[in-house]
Structure to design on (443 residues):
């Protein structure tokens, strides 16, 4: 497959052109990648007005993913999340309101989008919660909630896979959404590779209308590279307005290094990924069995992730420290889980080191402890809360106060309390459990 952006960058790197243009390093090596780092010079196209090499590369990506249209982001899925919510609100079905029905485990960029765009949110809550990272939404629960609403929402929004690797039944949820005349949007930040499995599990393959992928999380792409995918089922207005939506929330100086890596990834997706995934997933099955034979309990997750449940007397963070002492760094850890993200780019020797470092677990299995489900009262809108004066107070003094900005680290960047909500006992308990020391509240 042709890679027009990468080819242009390589040609410019080899040229003797005097660089009287941005960036300020002028192609001189500090990190070593500067010669490939350019701006929108003649022939390089422009991300938000693409009609040249960038448009050609995005069209290649669209064909590879089987989308109606695919667009690049150099600012991660956060930019794509804001853009797709803008598109959904601006192009909502006739008779619907600027309301998003969302599973509670949203990334905090969703909250900021609600403030900037000004839509309302109704939350889908889990019946049982074992982690703030998860929010299982059943088709029946979604059907009931949609039937209870006095209006059609602009969209239903879910995160799948979630940070622990849990996957939602997208096919069933999409069918429910169609019956109710609304659309299904998916934060698929952790699942860019899912289209290329032997049995595709990408949200678009399962009926979602629009989704985002963080290419850099599971594909060989530089950090910040992401996709906004629009299905073939949506009106043409979604694709025609997508660049405006992305530019509304993005820098006017998008990274050509990131775009070049997205472009080169097209060749990888075209030529190598299916074979490599097939081999790696078979290999991962063996690794899972070895870990289980050594006494570790693994949670069900997407095919490339290892999510280990912490046993009795040992936290996921302590497990992470154990691995770190042996030069192994995990993706995420809390009291209950250790999450390791893998791709075919990990050599098999990495897994041998992991199995050896974890060793044998002879501790008792810890049964998942149900967590309180936050059902807070929305006192003011998310927008009003985020644009009002704030102050920071200790988390154990936050009961009854109104949440200002969501106070949460990344990872997992999933708010416990949402802007504009009155902080209740359940939220305070979760602050303490997840070691949130201070909370941003309205003055």
């Amino acid at each position: 497959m042709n890679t027009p952006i990468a080819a242009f960058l390589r040609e410019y790197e080899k040229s003797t052109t005097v660089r009287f243009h941005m960036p300020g390093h002028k192609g001189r090596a500090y990190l070593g990648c500067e010669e490939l780092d350019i701006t929108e010079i003649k022939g390089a196209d422009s991300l938000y007005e693409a009609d040249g090499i960038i448009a050609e590369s995005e069209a290649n990506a669209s064909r590879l993913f089987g989308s109606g249209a695919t667009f690049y982001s150099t600012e991660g899925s956060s930019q794509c999340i804001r853009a797709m919510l803008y598109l959904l609100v601006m192009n909502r079905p006739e008779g619907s309101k600027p309301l998003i029905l969302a599973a509670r485990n949203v990334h905090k960029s969703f909250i900021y989008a609600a403030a900037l765009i000004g839509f309302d949110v109704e939350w889908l809550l889990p019946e049982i919660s074992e982690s703030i990272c998860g929010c299982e939404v059943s088709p029946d629960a979604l059907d009931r909630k949609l039937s209870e609403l006095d209006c059609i929402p602009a969209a239903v929004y879910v995160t799948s896979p979630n940070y622990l690797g849990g996957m939602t039944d997208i096919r069933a949820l999409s069918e429910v959404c169609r019956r109710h005349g609304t659309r299904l949007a998916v934060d698929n930040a952790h699942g860019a590779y899912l289209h290329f499995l032997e049995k595709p599990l990408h949200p678009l393959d399962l009926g979602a209308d629009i989704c985002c992928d963080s290419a850099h999380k599971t594909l060989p792409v530089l950090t910040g590279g992401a996709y906004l995918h629009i299905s073939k089922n949506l009106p043409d207005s979604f694709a025609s307005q997508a660049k405006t939506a992305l530019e509304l929330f993005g820098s006017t100086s998008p990274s050509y290094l990131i775009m070049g890596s997205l472009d080169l990834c097209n060749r990888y997706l075209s030529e190598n990924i299916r074979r490599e995934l097939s081999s790696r997933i078979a290999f991962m099955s063996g690794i899972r069995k070895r870990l289980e034979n050594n006494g570790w309990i693994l949670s069900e997750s997407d095919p490339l992730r290892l999510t280990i449940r912490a046993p009795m007397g040992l936290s996921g963070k302590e497990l992470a420290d154990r691995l770190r002492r042996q030069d192994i760094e995990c993706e995420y850890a809390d009291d209950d889980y250790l999450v390791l993200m893998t791709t075919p780019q990990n050599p098999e020797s990495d897994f041998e080191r992991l199995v050896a470092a974890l060793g044998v677990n002879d501790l008792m299995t810890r049964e998942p402890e149900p967590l309180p489900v936050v059902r807070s009262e929305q006192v003011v809108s998310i927008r009003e809360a985020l644009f009002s004066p704030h102050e920071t107070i200790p988390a154990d003094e936050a009961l009854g106060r109104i949440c200002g900005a969501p106070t949460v680290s990344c990872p997992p960047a999933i708010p416990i309390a949402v802007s504009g909500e009155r902080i209740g006992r359940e939220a305070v308990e979760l602050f303490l459990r997840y070691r949130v020391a201070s909370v941003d509240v309205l003055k």
Remarks:
- The chain has a mean pLDDT of 96.
- The two ends are 56 Å apart (CA to CA).
